[in-house]
Amino acid sequence: MPQFVLTLACPDRPGIVRALADGIVEVGGNILDNAQFSDPGTGMFCVRTQFEAPEQDAAAIREVIEGKVSEFRPMVSLRAVDRKYRVLIMVSRLDHCLVDLLYRWEIGEMPIEIPLVVSNHKDTRPLVERHGIPFVYLPVTAGTKPAVEQRLFDLVAEHEIDFVVLARYMQVLSDDACRKMPGRIINIHHSFLPGFKGSKPYHQAYERGVKLIGATAHYVTPDLDQGPIIEQDVVRVSHGQNADSLVAIGRDVERVVLARAVRLHAEDRVVLTGNRTVVFA
Amino acid sequence: MPQFVLTLACPDRPGIVRALADGIVEVGGNILDNAQFSDPGTGMFCVRTQFEAPEQDAAAIREVIEGKVSEFRPMVSLRAVDRKYRVLIMVSRLDHCLVDLLYRWEIGEMPIEIPLVVSNHKDTRPLVERHGIPFVYLPVTAGTKPAVEQRLFDLVAEHEIDFVVLARYMQVLSDDACRKMPGRIINIHHSFLPGFKGSKPYHQAYERGVKLIGATAHYVTPDLDQGPIIEQDVVRVSHGQNADSLVAIGRDVERVVLARAVRLHAEDRVVLTGNRTVVFA
Amino acid sequence: MPQFVLTLACPDRPGIVRALADGIVEVGGNILDNAQFSDPGTGMFCVRTQFEAPEQDAAAIREVIEGKVSEFRPMVSLRAVDRKYRVLIMVSRLDHCLVDLLYRWEIGEMPIEIPLVVSNHKDTRPLVERHGIPFVYLPVTAGTKPAVEQRLFDLVAEHEIDFVVLARYMQVLSDDACRKMPGRIINIHHSFLPGFKGSKPYHQAYERGVKLIGATAHYVTPDLDQGPIIEQDVVRVSHGQNADSLVAIGRDVERVVLARAVRLHAEDRVVLTGNRTVVFA
Amino acid sequence: MPQFVLTLACPDRPGIVRALADGIVEVGGNILDNAQFSDPGTGMFCVRTQFEAPEQDAAAIREVIEGKVSEFRPMVSLRAVDRKYRVLIMVSRLDHCLVDLLYRWEIGEMPIEIPLVVSNHKDTRPLVERHGIPFVYLPVTAGTKPAVEQRLFDLVAEHEIDFVVLARYMQVLSDDACRKMPGRIINIHHSFLPGFKGSKPYHQAYERGVKLIGATAHYVTPDLDQGPIIEQDVVRVSHGQNADSLVAIGRDVERVVLARAVRLHAEDRVVLTGNRTVVFA
C-alpha cells in the first residue's frame, strides 16, 4: 500500500488527535509512525503522522482529513512518500557539502530530486553535470544582486522547487529573498551557533581556544545566522590544530549536519514554532 | 489538571489510534505528548501517550480506555504522573551508581520513590540511612542464595515495589529470579554490550585496545548480559589509560547511563518488543 | 621510585629538549610520559614531562634542571606526584558540582587536597563538614565585597592554597581578585562558550532552540566568561525539553567538565599560551 | 626548513630521550612536536618526534640519530614530511569509503599518494580513473585466491606501496597475506569491535537492539577482526531504524573512522605495542 506523511500544526485544544485519527480511518489508513508535541512556550500543537492507505490521490486524502480537523484551523501538509521534494542547491567554491549531497542522492540515500544546482562560480559545473543535473551559473556583484535574486526565484518557480539548500553558498541573501520562502531555505553555518556568527568562524574559534568546533543547519531568515536551528553537531579539537586544521576537521561536521537537516526536512520531520523547530527524528 | 501516562502494545491493525483517541476524549482528556511506533520486525504496535484530564481515578480512566480498545487485545498501563514508581535498589560495594541515584532523587530530578536499598555488603548502610531510606543487609553465599532471593521477593511484595535497579550489584540472579519480574529489573553492565560480557570488562577492554569504552543499561533476563538494552553510551579513551584508569573513567558513563535508563523506565518511556526496546525519549 | 611532573614554557629555540633531557638524566631520572608542543601562534614552546627518579627533594631536582635550561629563560614548575595540590572550593546554593568533586576526592579519584570550602550561603555546610572539611561562610553584599575578597585571599595564604575552584559560585569576582591568581582560579560556566555568556544561559539556549547544550571550564580573568578554556563538552537535547529540563540535563555536563578540568590542572596538564590553553591530556 | 617525522620504539630504559635529543641537535634540528609513552603493560617505550632541520637527506639524518640511540636497539622510522606514503586502496562494490578517501586526497586533505586502486569488481573503475588513478581489476574465486594475492603483492612491490587500505574490501585475506605486511594493512570493519565480528554486523546490531552503532579501523592480522585497533567511533540510533537504515547511518561513521585511521598512519602517529596501538593524535 502507498504511504503518506501528514504534518499538522495548530493551537492546542482537546479533540484534535481524535479528529485526525477519524480522518485517517475514513480514508482507510493505518498509522505506521506518529509523533506529536504540545509546545508549552507557544501553545502550539504539532504532529507528524506516517500512514499507509489504499491507492488514491493525495489531494483527496487531504481533503477528507482537512474536513475532519477544520474546526482547529490547522496548517496541514500531506505528501505521498514516493513524491519526493524538488530541491535547488546553491553553492560557491567550497564543494564538500555539494559533493556529499550529490553522493547521497546518487546512491539513493537522500529522498529528494535535484532539478538544478546554482552557483556564483563555475568551479562545480563539471561535478554537477557529471551527475546529469543542470548547472546554472549566476555570478553576483553588488550591482546585480537584485536581478540575480529575481532570476533565482524565477528558477524556483519554473522548476517547481520545494526548498532551497545553501550548501556553502557564500553570498548573503537580501531580506526580501529570505522572506519569500520562509522555512524553505536551509543554510549550513560553519560554527556551533550562536557562537562565532559571521565570517571566518573557524578562525574565531581558534582565537577563542574552544575545545570543540561545530556546525549548524538552520532556516534562513533576514537576521543573519539567527534563523531557527534544525540540526547541530560538534567534534573535539585540541591546541594542536591551527585555524586551517579546524577548517578541514569542520568539513566533516558540516556535511553530516547539512545532510541530516536536508533529510529531516525532506521527510517532513521539521515543524516551525516561532523561532524554534520541533524535530520528529 | 492532573496528568496521566498511558502505554499500550498490541499487534498492529488499523483503527487502534482512533479507538484510543476516542477513549481519551471520553474521559475529557487532552493529549500533551504522544509517540507511537509500528515495529516491522514483530508486527507490534506500541504507543505512549501523556494527557491531562479532569481529576478522577486512574483506574476509572483505564477502564474507559480499555473498553474502547478491547478488540485489539492490547497490554495497557496507565499511571497518574504524580503516582511515582516504587524502586528497590540493589548494590554491592562500589557505590558510585547508588550515590548518583540518591543524589538525583534527593534534588527531585528522579521521579521515583525508594522504599529501601538492599545490599550483600554493609558498606553503603550509612549513606543510605543518611537519606532516610531503610537499608537491608542480605549477604549471599552459595548455600543461601535461594533463601536470599526468596527474601528479596518478599521485600518486593511487602514494599509494593514496581521495579528493581541493580546499581552495580555483583551477584548473578538465578534464572528463576530473572523470570519472576520480566522487564522490571534494570541492570547496569560496565561495557558497551555485546562487547566484553561477563566479568572484568574494563580489563578486557584494555587488553583489546579499544578506543572507546561504554556502559549498557538493560533488563535482566536468564541469559547473562543478553537482556533487552535500554540505554548505552561511550567515552573516548587512549593508550595512556590502564585498566584502573578505565574503571575510573567508566564510572562516569555507568552512572549517567543507569540514571537515564531508570528515568526512562520511571516515566513509562520503554516498551519491550521481543528482545528489543522501543524507547520514546 | 618516586615520580615527578615538570612543566616548562619558553620561547621556542633549538636545544631546549636536549638541555631538559640532560637535566633529567643528571638527577637519575627516567621519563615515563612526555608531551611537548610548539605553538606557531605565539612562538612558545611548552612541555610536560613525568619521570621517576631516586628519592630526593623536588627543590633539588628543580635546581639541577633549571641550571641546565637557564639560557632559555623558561617558566618551570616541578612537583612530586605524591605532593597533591591544595584546592579551595567555592560554591553558592547549587551543589551538584561540589557533591561531585567531594565524591571523586573521597574515593581517591581526584588527586587533590581540599583544606576548606567557602560559600556565600550556609546550605552546603552539613555536606562539607560530613566529609571532614572545614566550611567557611562568607556572605557577600554589595558593600562587603572588597572585605570578603580580602578575607578570601587571606584564607588562600593561610591554607597555602594552590588553586581555587568556583563550583557554581554565583558571585562575580572583582577585577583585582581575578588578577591576583592568574591561571589559578577555575570556573565552570553552564554553557558552551562563547555562546550564552552571562546569566541564565539555559534559558538563553532554550529561546535560541539549540540542539546541543554544553558547559565550559575556564580560567577566570577580569573579562567575564572570556578566560582561557580548559575543557568543554556538550549533550544533545530536543524540542521536548524546556529551560528547566535543560538545567537538569546540564548538571551532568557541568560536573563532568569541571571534574575533568580540575584533574587536568591538578596533574599539571594545562599550560597557558596567551588566552588559549595547551592541554596535555 | 624541511620537516621530518621520527618514530622510535624500544624497551624502556633511562637515557633514551637524551640520546635522541642529542641526535636531533647534531643534525641541526629543532623539535616542533613530540609525544612519547612508556607502556607499563609491555615495558615498551615509544616516541614520535616532528622536527625541522636544514636541508639534508633523510637517510643521513637517520644514520646520525641511529648512531646515538643504538645501545637501546630501537626500531626507528624516519620520513621527510614532504615524502608522502604510497597507498594501495582495495575495494569491492560499496564505494562510500573509496569516494571519501579520493575526495580528501583530491582536495589535499589526505597526505598520501595513491598509485593504484585494486578491486574484485569493475564497478568503481570509472570513479577511480576519473581521478587519474590506475584501476586494477582482480576478481577472486575460491580457486584463484592464491594467485590473486600473489599478484597483489607483486603490485605492492612494483608500485613501492607503503601500506594498503581495505576500504570495504569484502574478501578475507589469507593468513599468509596478513602476515606479509604486519601493521601495514588497514581495514575498516562496520561495527564497534569487539561487538558484531564477522558478516552482516548491522543486522546483528539490529537484532541485538543496541542504541549506538559504530565502526572500527584496525590493522589486519590472521585473526579475523581481531587486529590492533587504530580508531573507532559510534553514532546514536533508535528503535525506529531497521537494519537497512543502520547500514546507511553506518556509512557516515565508517568513512570518517577509516579516514582518520589512514591519516594517523600516514602521519606516523600509530605505534604498535603487542596487539594494542599507541596513537599520538
Quick structural gist:
The structure is a homotetramer of 281-residue chains. With 281 residues, the first copy, chain A, is of the alpha/beta class. Chain A has 8 helices and 13 strands.
Core attributes:
homotetramer; 281 residues; alpha/beta; Alpha-Beta Plaits; Rossmann fold; 2 domains; 7-stranded mixed β-sheet; 4-stranded antiparallel β-sheet; 13 strands; globular
- CATH homologous superfamily grouping of the largest domain in chain A: Formyl transferase, N-terminal domain
Structurally, how many domains make up the residues of chain A? 2
* Residues in helix, % of chain A: 25-40%
Strand content of chain A: 25-35%
Characterize the structure shown.
4 copies of one chain form a homotetramer. Chain A has 8 helices and 13 strands. By secondary structure, the first copy, chain A, is α/β, with parallel strands linked by helices. Chain A folds into 2 domains: 78 residues, Alpha-Beta Plaits (2-Layer Sandwich); 195 residues, 3-Layer(aba) Sandwich (Rossmann fold). In chain A, the strands form 3 sheets. Chain A has a 7-stranded mixed β-sheet with strand order 7-6-5-8-9-10-11. A 4-stranded antiparallel β-sheet of chain A has the order 2-3-1-4, with helices on one face. In chain A, helix 4 links the parallel strand 6 and strand 7. The first copy, chain A, is globular. Chain A starts with a strand and ends with a strand. At the B-C interface, helix 3 and helix 8 of B face helix 3 and helix 8 of C.
